## 1
Amino acid sequence: MKHVARIAASFVSVTLFVLMTFGTTALAGVDDATASGVEGRTLLAGLFGSTTKSQAPDFDLQDLKGTPVKLSQFRGDRPVLLYFWATWCPSCSTMKPHLAKVREKVPEKDLQILGINVGEGDSLEKVKRYQEGHPSPWPTLYDAGSKVARSYRVQGIPLFVLIDKEGMIVYQGNDLPQDPLQILKK
């Protein structure tokens, strides 16, 4: 019994240490207006996932066929799940079938999924070749200069960002939400 108590105390201590260290680091040197948005929560979101609402930065990217896609085109119509990934990322490859299951359960009319290749280390041609061999049931967008990845403060991939109909981020983290629609109801 003492062993279990020590393990629990150690877990609490480590958790508090991580929160205190990374929580203050994430906000250090950031003004209050920025700290209340996505930027102030990014590091902790990457570690634990975040469900605090903030405005999603709009973007205009092209899919692999050259068709322009704007995030704002979905506002007022349906929620959006962004999936930041790269061809060289083994964790991204592992998550892709799980995301495909979400697509099977939730029709596109109820949730738009957009895969955004972060562009770092991947050429457009490489992404196209990868998608030919590993097709996705959602549009794949290419972030050539990583501008969108920077606006969402992507620090680790895969990164999932769930955006409600009003364009507010309701979840941002490295874990795929088990039930995105449940998070949207909160």
## 2
Amino acid sequence: MATIEPMSTNKSTSVNLTFLGDIAFSDRFQELLEAGEDQFVEVKPLLEKSDCVIGNLEVVAFGSAQNMLKRPRIGTSLKALNELKNLHVKLVSLATNHFYDNLEEGFLNTTNKLKELDIKHVGSDIDPIKAKDPAILDVKGWRFGFVNFVHTDTHPSLPDDASVHTNFFELEEVVSQIKRLKPKVDRVIALLHWGGKTDYGYLPHKEQLKQAKRIIEAGADAIVGCHTHTFQTHDVINGKPVYYSLGNFCFSDIHCDGGVYTVRESGKKGGLLNLTFFENGKVNHKVNPIYNQNHKIVLKPTLAKEFRWWQTYFEVTKLFPGGFALYYWGLKRIEPIFYYSQLNKISVSQIALNKLKKLLKLK
């Protein structure tokens, strides 16, 4: 188990932490970073102001082979990973569905690079015991404990003989780890890679609401989720913020096995989450919307209106039996239409018109 030092008695009155969604310095982002381009110049001033930046590292470095059970697979270079330092990241979560894309060699290349950059990681490790260890960060005299889990519904697709281990999401284990950690730190934050049942959706799955309640009741002071590639709605449970998914911080089209997995338009929208913790237990939370504009991550305040619309829809959906089932039904049928529209550069209204003409057997 990780060694935990005594808590500091010299604490500031408040601490603010900033969280980044899925970080993938792969494909086009890797090319641009290696060429010396700064794709994040607009958001860096906000990160510099934060007391600590935490990110979900969705990509690991390349090795000499890949996990052929996983599709799509992604990877990056050690040179591109240097950008984490420029983003002021102090901790990355590695319990993801891509942590084993480049097998043990790729994982070790990554963790060795993180050590060189003085960046901690949590959630996955060569040692199965260490994979379950929390990460402890001392920030302005506050001791923050982080636990990190990946849900199987995100499809890590691991071979039976995988030599790297991860912290799989099992609710009772999540609760147990939080309860053990709680007395040893000032605040506990759960970093969850989950939501595979609502990929590309703006609302979480109904079961996640119940899971979040249990996790907060166990002692978590915040839940920060990733994986869905969309910025999802949030909850406040017992005064504690629950962000189900922050969306992508940076993600490029994936080139894998001769095919291209195009980033959806919804996957170009994300949020920088800022949590401010106070001594009295209060937690303030604020989101700065971001957008992937031709591989430049820019601030886009106008997205706040869209995020608020989905938040209102979420609050209303919670009030009606069957509201979530209706949303899931629509997600499976409507979201692919928008994706088809994006890929083929045709409006949704034109798609509907073409469908109507086909039904009416009109030319």
## 3
Amino acid sequence: MFHDVELNNQDAKKLAQMGSNAIAYMREMTTDEIRTAFPQTPELEENQTYWALFGADGAPLMLASERVDIASSAFYNNLKPVMPN
């Protein structure tokens, strides 16, 4: 079950305060965005999009090519995945 949410700055602060042990957000990212968020990532195919999972505090947690893999990882780790709009 996915929950789409629209976040403003205040909402983002509240999300972070809830703790990264309860909620994670997932989003689709380009290769360039991934290089910034996940600097330790090995070479990726150019012009591809990937899915990333972040803790409520913004810490990068996981990267995958499929949305379902990110969601599964969140559920497996007892995190409620949300997708910011």
